[in-house]
Design goal:
Layout (H helix, E strand, L loop, with lengths): L11 H7 L3 H6 L3 E6 L5 E4 L1 H8 L9 E3 L8 E8 L4 E4 L1
Antiparallel strand pairs: 1-2, 1-4, 3-4, 4-5
The protein binds zinc ion.
Length: about 90
């Protein structure tokens, strides 16, 4: 896996421009995880399920979801892994 050093300079806006929708993330092979800011529960996000529910044009940027753990009222934040860049990105 070649790591392109230019990606290290990128901010969130650059990443959002590069992969604006869930369909783009799927096409570029991103894997997504959701982490709860309250209880630290981590979950793998199945991109194909999100696409089936929301469509390929849906944008996950800036979105949070209710924590899936019982009795936790925290919010889950998404993080993407861009395999071609070898970088983790806060979504
Ligand atoms: Zn939680």
């Amino acid at each position: 896996m070649g790591h392109n050093p230019r990606f290290r300079m990128w901010g969130n806006e650059d990443w959002q421009g590069y992969c604006p929708t869930i369909g783009d993330m799927d096409r570029r092979g991103w894997s997504l995880t959701a982490t709860c800011s309250t209880c630290d529960l981590k979950m793998e996000v199945r991109v194909e399920v999100v696409i089936r529910e929301k469509g390929r044009a849906w944008s996950p940027w800036g979105k949070t979801a209710k924590c899936r753990r019982l009795h936790c009222h925290g919010r889950m934040y998404l993080r993407g892994y861009a395999p071609r860049a070898g970088e983790y990105v806060d979504i």
